[in-house]
Amino acid sequence: MLSAIVIAIVIVAVFGPTIKRTLDLKDPPVLVWPLMLLAAASPAVMGYIVLHPGEPVAEADISPLSKVVVLEAPPHHSILVTANLNEDPKGSTPNKTDYALALSGPGWTGKATGEIRRKANNDDDVDVDVLDGEQLSESGRRRNGKWGEDLQQRFDLKGPGPVQIELTNFSGEAASSLHIEVIKSPPPSWLLWIGALTLGAIALVVEIRHGPTQLAGDVAMVALYGVFLRDGVTPVDSFQRVAFAAAPAALVGWGIFASIGYLVDRKRAREARKAERERALEEQRQLEEALRKRRRR
Questions:
Q1: Which of 27, 91, 221, 244 could form a disulfide with 253 if both were Cys (CB 3.0 to 4.6 A apart)?
Q2: Would you state the pLDDT for residue 66?
C-alpha cells in the first residue's frame, strides 16, 4: 500500500505543475493530456506488476549443501532469488552474502550474480526484528526488506523449458540459503525504453511548437520511472526503494529532454531579442530619415 502511495505522490508531484502551466496557456494543446496519461500509466502499471508477480510456477531452495536444482520455466518467465536469512549469523560478514548462479536451459546458458544485504545495529548485533510479510522455511526465514537492505533480486531467463540452476559461489553469513521461484516476467526493458523515449520525443515536439515549458522532461521522467521500477524493484523491497527508483528516471528524463527543451527556449529567446533589436534599429533609422526629410523642407 505504501509503495502505491509513493508512486502516486511522484506522479502528482511531477505532473501537478505541468498541468498548471498547461492551463495557463491561452490555447492548450490537446496532445498534452494523452501524453501525460500514457506516461503516468507506465509507473502505475509497472509498479503493480513488479510488486505483485503472482504465484510462482515452480520453486526450490538452493544452498552450499544442495547446489543444483532444475525448475521448469514457461515462456517469458524469470527467476526470483530471495534470501533465506540466517537466524544467528556469525563470522566477519554477518550482514552480507555474495552469490553466483550458473543458469542453463535448452540451447542457452547464462549466469546471475547478486548480493544480499541486511541491516544490523552494530557489528555484533544483527537486526532480526520481525516484519510484516515474514515467512519461515526449513532453511531460514524470508521477510520484507527495510531501507538499505537488498534481500531479493529478479533475473530474466533466456528461454523456456527445464532450467538448471547451479550455485557456483556463496560467501557471507547474512543468508543461509537462497529461495528460487519461477515467476512471470514483466514487459522487457527494451520495450519500455522505446515507449518512454517515444513519449518524451513527442512531448518535446509539442513543447517546442505549442508549450508548455518542461513538458518533455516531465513526460519522459514519469515514463522512465516505470522503466527503473521494472529493473530495480522486487516484491519484498521497501517503499523507500520504490521512491528511490525515481532518481535515475529524473536524471535521464530531465537531464536529456528538459535540457533540450531549455536549449530550444534559450535559442528562441535569443532570436526574439535579436529580432526586437533589429526592429528597434529599423524604427530608429526610419525616424532619423523622416527627420532629415523634414529639415530639408
A1: 221
A2: 87
Termini Cα distance of the chain? 86
Integer Cα distance of 113 and 164 in angstroms: 15
Q: Do residues 142 and 123 make contact, with C-beta atoms less than 8 angstroms apart? A: no
Using the Cα atoms of residue 222, residue 227, residue 228 and residue 232 in order, give the sign of their dihedral: positive
* C-alpha cell recorded at residue 165: 540452476
Compute the distance between CA of residue 225 and CA of residue 245 in angstroms, rounded to an integer: 7
Cα separation, 160 vs 175, whole angstroms: 29
For the 58-184 domain, the top CATH level (class) is mainly beta
Instruction: Name the residue ranges covered by the structural domains of the chain.
Output: 2-51+188-276, 58-184
Please write the tens of the pLDDT for every residue from 3-30.
Answer: 889 999 999 999 999 999 999 888 889 9
pLDDT in tens, 81-111: 999 888 776 766 788 899 999 999 999 999 9
- Asked if the model's pLDDT at residue 145 lies above 50, the reply is yes
